[in-house]
Amino acid sequence: MTGKPGARKDIEAHTVASQRTKEFQMATNRRTLLKGAAALAALPVGLRASQAAAQSTPEATPVGTPMGTPVGTPAAPLVVGTPEASLEVFSWWTSGGEAAGLEQIFAAFSAGSPSVSIVNAAVAGGAGSNAQAALQTRLTGGQAPDSWQSHLGRELQSRYVDPGYCQPLTDLFAEQGWNEAFPQGVLDQLSVGGVPYVVPVGNHRGNVLFYNRALMESNGITVGETMSIDEFFAAADVLQAAGIPAIALGGRDTFASVQLFENTLLGTLGADAYNALWNDPSMWSSDGVTAAIEAFARMLGYLNPDQAALTWDGAADLVGQGTAGFTSMGDWAYGDFVSKGTEANVGWVTHPGSAGTFVAVIDGFTLPVGAPNPVNAANWLRTAGSVAAQTAFAPFKGCIPARTDVDASGFNEYLQWSAADFGTAVSVPSIAHGTAVTPQVQQAISDATVQFLVSPDVETYRVTIQQAAEDDAAS
């Protein structure tokens, strides 16, 4: 791919990216680091080939890091075989914290394979939906990249394993000791029929309610260690009376609206009833589901008026800047706050009613059938699954490592909170991110949610979702 027209510009762009990543890591104060992440976010997205990527690896541990975690020099990953010339990695990580985190894994890979040119085939927009559509076109056309990003669970199985697009990773898991490094719940989600198909790199929490600290204080709102749905609406009423949107939503990214719904569904039902929905479609007719949809409908009365025009990170900006009170989002939003220098303005709590649960949104990478550069593809996975790469990646991305043997003692307050809860909370799957339902049901819920934001008819919404779940179960 580096031989195509325009490739020289891509090489130059990635050379700039590598240099900026080095500067980002080696800065001696926190503010410079934050500005570096923002600079990474502004770089062109698309095919960016890496020349001499090893120079992006820092030679010393920085004094400060974006989230209080020492990044250090990524340890040289295990390299097996003779590397090919290039490696193409496909993802949707293009925003500030996402792009910076991905650069950390690239740097770790380049430490062991410095001669390999990395092609960053990231696709922006739609919080992954645009990338998934572009990837599907490539896969059906027999043009697979060397590795691509996937969520675990139903998305992995329905989109990639069942059609035969990715290879089993049984031998690689045994070689790297990953069956012991990843918790059983994660192993279950990354496997189909007991066979692993994806290497997880980071574990996000989807049910987080971020809030602007100053707005809460100036309006006399106290946010405790947990928040009930009634407490949330009481706070929302106070903000609304002050002329402040209580909830910032980026409805341009459909997943954000679905995530607000699923978090409210979980907060209303609790983990057991929420999980029962994925095995018994008739449970969508329960009174609890109706109550959850009613609460969701009520929340729509507190939204920012420009929600349809904003992306998820645009909505998060409203909270970080103090022009909206809350946003219900996964903790990749925290990485975004950090990249923009607003993390000190923001507090967090589990989505109302959902304390004691953890909506696990886990990202990982696959090994395609017929990978163009199979040696590099396998070594990329070895790197992505390593302690060094996951330790470097997590602080930038705003997630906790997927491995359980990573020392989290140096992580910032938010990540330590998330890691501690993951160890004790009930882990549940996500609708919005494809781990709870098939792509067909996910799309049906997405379409119904878009309509619900325009015309919030509770019964129509419930029946539409139940019918989609029943049709899928019968197919």
Please explain how this structure is put together:
The structure is a single chain. The chain is α/β, with parallel strands linked by helices and 475 residues long. Helices cover 48% and strands 11% of the residues. It has two domains: 7-202 and 364-410, D-Maltodextrin-Binding Protein, domain 2 (3-Layer(aba) Sandwich), CATH 3.40.190.10; 208-353 and 437-474, Periplasmic binding protein-like II (D-Maltodextrin-Binding Protein, domain 2, 3-Layer(aba) Sandwich). Strands 1, 2, 3, 6, 10, 11 and 12 form a seven-stranded mixed beta sheet that branches. It has a three-stranded antiparallel beta sheet with strand order 8-7-9.
3D shape: globular
Q: What distance separates the N and C termini? A: 40 Å
**Strand-pairing-aware structural class:** alpha/beta
User: Main sheet, how many strands, which sense, barrel?
Assistant: 7 strands, mixed
What's the helix count? 20
The oligomeric state of the chains shown is single chain
**Architecture of the largest domain in CATH?**
3-Layer(aba) Sandwich
Instruction: Please bin the fraction of helical residues.
Output: 40-55%
Summed up, the domain count is 2
